[in-house]
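Quick one before lunch.
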Amino acid sequence: MRMVIVGFGTVGQNLVRVLQSKEKQLLREFGFRPRIVAAVDRGGAMIDLGGLNLDRVLTVKQTRGSVAQDEKLGRPGVDGKEVIEEVDAEAVLELTPTSIVDGEPGLSHIKAALRSRRHVITTNKAPLAIAMPSLMEMASYNRVTLKFSGTVGGGTPILDFAKKCFNGNRIESIRGIFNGTTNFILTRMAESNISMETALKEAQALGYAEADPSYGIDGVDTACKLVILANWVMGSESSIKDVEIDGIRKVTSEDVKEAERKNSQVKLIGSIEDEIKVQPEPIPRNHPLCVEGALNAVSFKTELLGEVTIVGKGAGGVETASAVLRDIVDVRRILAG
Ligand code: HSE
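Model of the L-homoserine complex:
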């Protein structure tokens, strides 16, 4: 299975490390050996049609800043779209950072890959939050799959859980904590009485925050995830424009303490009920949604089962790489028929 990685930041590099450590397991359990034939970052690409040496890609990236700086295999200045269109591969892993302004460059990468009949795996939320129904249609028209497990919940399989575990039942509403960074910030503010800025720096040092952390703090990251969930699970055809968004920027230390006094914690809650909404809310400490640190927690209110909650790590390079790995295995299953 030949793959092109477009976007070689935290998630991409962690994925390569995971692929290295899982080589034998993938062969033994799923009968395949994934090959990365190209890696692309802002500086250009590194290409080897026979499969890149993964140690070498990581070393070049870490020592020279861009994979394009490899003496033999580097192609400075080449961009993701060119590589997607020119390099023969079964799948494109689109791992560039989210930009909610226009979804680029991820949106163009995903469209180019689908048009070239490549299966696509992405962790980039913005293209889906902006244009999910048309991208799904484009994938189906070109008879390939578009997979996006890592866009919601980091490694925690919230999307699969929601999609596969309630067959015959009906999800009536969804409420949850979808952003690890803000949950970490709110938790640290409550436990150590530190400012939002200090807590954000800690979150960045731990690799939870986006390239642009305001997406988390202003609720945009949660809104993107709600749109993906609503479209994928509730049959909605919504986009980010349909979400009412209020982030945690105005939450003060006093709000956090006031909630504590009432045995609650302030959480940034994303909900899909009659409306799709993001807002800070006090959650009672004994409620399953009241999780700490960078954890995500999502409660599904269902017709036959009442409330069911899934909890897990919602951010981080290795965690998100684990979601990409699940998608790779799924694509491989499709390829194998
Ligand atoms: N930065 C996000 C978060 C993870 O803090 O939850 C990626 O969506």
